[in-house]
Amino acid sequence: MFVVGLTGGIGSGKTAVSDRFAARGIEVVDADVAARAVVEPGQPALKFIAEHFGKVILTADGQLDRAALRARVFSDPAEREWLEALLHPRISEWIAEQLAAASSAYVVLVSPLLFETNQVRFTDRVLVVDVSEELQLERTMARDKNDEAQVRSIMAAQASREERLDKADDIIVNDADLETLNAHVEELHMNYLAAARNA
Ligand code: ATP
């Protein structure tokens, strides 16, 4: 299966781009969905997390309390490492299964942390959505009603624009309207169909 890895900073337009591949019949595997799936009630990872951090990490109905967990590992690198060592292999396994089950001409793996988690190893080609920091802030704040400091702190925890662009095979500069974005996706779609045929 020919896999296109899609990444970009917060609010860069990953979902806007992946929706437009999906509209062309291309299956999209989402690393954010994987990260939620592996800690659903009944999953072994949730049991390990509850044993390790205590029941305070669960909501009343037995779901993972993400805010509580984030607060717990935020200022504790060792606990964060423990959590990542638990979750990353499970997330990778979930992604690998979804990629293997895909039946479209090629498949898009969308991940905000494609490089940071080495999910890039699943991909044949890397597509980066790039926008200026100003646009990133403006669109994310308009979407999430977050203040500037919150968005900036997330941006600071992600790979820098330069790092991402350095590793890109293809780049969409998402600084115009959605019609322009769609035209970029159409062009790349044609290239990926050809690449998948030749792979
Ligand atoms: P996150 O990392 O937070 O999941 P993302 O990279 O998936 O974000 P999107 O949600 O696709 O980003 O885009 C951020 C916001 O900007 C959304 O509200 C989206 O509709 C809007 N947006 C994206 N591209 C454009 C564009 N070219 N013109 C106008 N608005 C856009």
TL;DR of this structure?
The protein has 199 residues and is α/β, with parallel strands linked by helices.
The number of domains: 1
- Could you tell me which ligands this complex binds, including any ions or cofactors? adenosine-5'-triphosphate
Please state the overall shape, judged from the principal axes of the Cα atoms: globular
* Structure summary, number of beta strands: 5
CATH topology label: Rossmann fold
**Strand residue content:** 5-15%
Overall pLDDT confidence: 95
The name of the CATH architecture is: 3-Layer(aba) Sandwich
- Report the top-level CATH class: Alpha Beta
Spatial sequence of strands, sheet with the most strands: 2-3-1-4-5
User: How are helices and strands ordered from N to C?
Assistant: EHEHHHHEEHHHEH
* Structural class based on helices, strands and sheet pairing: alpha/beta
